Amino acid sequence: MIKELIEKAREAQEKSYSPYSNFRVGAAVLIDGKIYSGCNIEIASYSPTICAERTAIFKGISEGGKKIEKIAIVGDNLDTYPCGVCRQVIREFASEDVEIIIANSIDDYKIYSMEEILPHSFGPKDLGKGE
Ligand code: THU
Fold first, then answer.
1. Could you tell me the residue ranges of all domains in the chain?
2. How close is the Cα of 128 to the center of ligand 1, in Å?
3. Is this prediction's pTM over 0.90?
4. What pLDDT digit, counting tens, does each position of 12-47 carry?
């Protein structure tokens, strides 16, 4: 499953629309057993730009998905980590044992937990929602 996610993230990276940064990112997320993928999309006025992780996650949530089981991320740099905003979005929909996979290739990747990637987070539980 991890290798499949990395392959899907790599395919999505090829679709990256990033004419300003020329930094291509792809992500693939497993939500309730289904894979959704996405790329970063940049906009000339910059602030509407969306990261690959959020493209993929929002596709899944908008299709009725609830919980992220795994997310794989590939970028143009070795070890491309999610930005702070995307870490918070992952946190919102994370299953308890979510795996965040930072991938360079199908056999070169690292796996992180939510607590490792966003320690001491503020989340739904702070507002009396979820677990
Ligand atoms: N980017 C992502 O898509 N995900 C990340 O985790 C880091 C940054 C994108 C946003 C922007 O299009 C480009 O990479 C440069 O910041």
1. 2-127
2. 31
3. yes
4. 999 999 999 999 999 999 999 999 999 999 999 999
